């Protein structure tokens, strides 16, 4: 269903239409329309796109983010003065956890989990600002 709807919009844009029939209704078509899909293949609980939908999009490869830099910036924004040292420790810890602990799908040692820990660390830091950071 979605592929035929996207194809209808795409054809309208190609033909330069200002209005078109969409699902039984006349709609205005904005020429600045853009449709984007973010995929994370292999992520727990996600399904692949049908081939009919994949055919309507161009793939774009994204590099793996620098977790240490992201971690450092988050720690600084949470008020940590020793963010560089702590970021290195946290990313090494999560790398080791990802590599050596269970590979079951319900364990997550990715950026989402790391961010949750850093936000909690910031809350603890604000609650006890005099505690030593270098533990």
Characterise this structure.
- This protein is mainly α and 135 residues long.
- It contains five helices and two strands.
- It has a two-stranded antiparallel ribbon.
- The longest helix has 18 residues, at 83-100.
- The N and C termini lie far apart (55 Å).
- 7% of the residues are buried.
Gyration radius from CA atoms, angstroms: 23 Å
Pick out the low-confidence regions: none
The topology string of helices and strands comes to: HEEHHHH
Q: Strand arrangement, largest sheet? A: 1-2
Q: In what range is the share of β-strand residues? A: 5-15%
Q: Percentage of helical residues?
A: 40-55%
Count the helices. How many?
Answer: 5
Shape: elongated
Distance between the termini: 55 Å
**Number of strand elements:** 2
Overall pLDDT level: 88
Topology of helices and strands:
Elements: H1 2-14, E1 19-22, E2 25-28, H2 51-54, H3 67-77, H4 83-100, H5 111-127
Antiparallel strand pairs: 1-2
Quick recap of the structure?
By secondary structure, the chain is mainly alpha-helical. It has helices at 2-14, 51-54, 67-77, 83-100, 111-127; strands at 19-22, 25-28.
Any descriptors?
mainly alpha; two-stranded antiparallel ribbon; 5 helices; 2 strands; 47% helix
């Amino acid at each position: 269903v979605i592929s035929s709807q996207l194809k209808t919009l795409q054809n309208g844009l190609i033909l330069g239409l200002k209005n078109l029939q969409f699902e039984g209704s006349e709609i205005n078509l904005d020429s600045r329309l853009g449709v984007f899909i973010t995929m994370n293949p292999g992520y727990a609980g996600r399904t692949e796109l049908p081939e009919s939908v994949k055919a309507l999009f161009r793939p774009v490869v994204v590099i793996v983010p620098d977790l240490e830099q992201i971690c450092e910036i988050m720690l600084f924004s949470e008020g940590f003065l020793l963010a560089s040292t702590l970021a290195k420790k946290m990313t090494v810890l999560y790398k080791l956890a990802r590599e050596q602990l269970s590979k079951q799908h319900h364990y997550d040692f990715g950026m989402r989990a790391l961010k949750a820990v850093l936000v909690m660390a910031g809350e603890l830091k604000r609650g006890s600002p005099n505690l030593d950071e270098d533990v």
